[in-house]
UniProtKB/TrEMBL annotation:
The keyword Repeat applies. This is TPR-like protein. GO terms for cellular component: cytosol; nucleus. Belongs to the TTC4 family.
Length: 359
């Protein structure tokens, strides 16, 4: 009789081999939850719950400890939960709760840590692990005073517990640092509120009228503010100022125009008699000695500003008369002034403005 022919063997890759091991009841990492279990799996499951509640829970605790050593914290917590669910006696239940708290501490589930530790302390008010792990969770939650209390109780019962002493020191340092930071933040916010209130009062005293920004205007990185080096009893304000050149439809910004500074100082710096000229000044008309300054008030009045005048002088000149409220306009956190060559260009611009207002 002829010998049977050899049968072809099925090739398995590494993943298939691992899957085959995981499917075998003896090598399963966890029991399946399906109702129709393999008989061998069913037998293993029955075996896992064979014994008294304390014996079963103790077995689950040992399994959970293996998972924890392998840093499989979720698996460990799940197994500890199985042990807790069989309702063992207090001597087994306390370490199961503490161990599950350790898993949740690693997983940063601090609320669950506190719940399990609280239950463990109900069983044993001197539970060293429950006290310490409660302290760790409370520090993570920035509940420093409660953490310190937990450490104090732990050290009182276990004077040699260096971890609890170190945690207590950490909690004290963190609490003090947080308190200092909160105080600094509160002081900063108070100072900012006082400065905003002082600035608001200063703007009103200077007859400055703030108007809403247009939706298309770009945010201004500069804002009016009080000079921190000025006399607190008579603070000096600093403004962003636009110098507009209507003849050429362009402008310059002076980011810090101190209100006590005369216009001549800025104009002299921007248009020196013998300095280089802007590209747009093709007719060489813009030099400090031949320029004039105009301001427009909220009520559309036109004011000629002498170059020796300061912003403070202009604020007074722009004030309304006979009970009429008027003043310079602050828009997009900026004041604006028109700069023109004196003579023909100036006269034409003034007349054109007056005509536009009259319409």
């Amino acid at each position: 009789m002829a010998a049977p022919l050899p049968q072809p063997q099925t090739a398995y890759n590494d993943e298939e081999k691992l899957a085959a091991f995981d499917a075998h009841p003896l090598f399963m990492k966890s029991l399946p939850a399906d109702d129709n279990l393999d008989p061998a799996v069913q037998a293993l499951q029955n075996l896992a719950y064979d014994g008294t509640p304390d014996e079963v829970a103790s077995n689950f605790k040992d399994q959970g400890n293996e998972h924890f050593r392998d840093k499989r914290y979720r698996d460990a917590a799940s197994v500890y939960t199985q042990g807790i669910d069989v309702k063992p006696g207090p001597e087994i239940l306390e370490p199961l709760l503490c161990n599950r708290a350790a898993c949740n501490l690693e997983l940063k589930n601090y609320g669950s840590v506190l719940k399990d530790c609280s239950k463990a302390l109900t069983i044993n008010p001197k539970s060293q692990k429950a006290l310490y792990r409660s302290g760790c969770a409370l520090v993570a939650l920035e509940r420093y005073d409660e953490a310190i209390d937990c450490c104090d109780v732990c050290v009182r019962h276990f004077p040699d517990n260096s971890s609890a002493k170190a945690l207590r020191e950490k909690a004290i340092l963190s609490r003090d640092a947080k308190s200092k930071k909160e105080q600094e933040k509160a002081a900063k916010e108070l100072k900012e509120r006082q400065e905003r209130r002082q600035l608001s009062m200063g703007l009103r005293a200077r007859n400055i009228i703030t108007v809403p920004d247009s939706e298309t205007s770009e945010p201004n990185p500069y804002v009016p503010h009080i000079d921190p080096d000025s006399d607190p009893t008579n603070p000096e304000l600093v403004f962003p100022v636009f110098f507009l050149y209507p003849q050429h439809a362009t402008s310059d910004m002076i980011s810090h125009f101190y209100e006590s500074t005369p216009f001549a100082m800025h104009i002299q710096a921007m248009f020196p008699p013998e300095g280089s000229r802007p590209e747009w000044d093709t007719n060489n008309e813009y030099n400090a000695g031949s320029l004039v300054v105009y301001a427009i008030t909220h009520k559309m009045r036109i004011l000629k500003v002498g170059k020796k005048m300061t912003l403070r002088d202009v604020f007074k000149a722009a004030a309304g008369k006979d009970g009429v409220t008027d003043g310079l306009v602050l828009k997009n956190n900026c004041l604006s002034f028109a700069i023109l060559p004196s003579g023909k260009v100036e006269k034409e611009w003034v007349q054109e403005y007056k005509n536009s207002v009259a319409q």
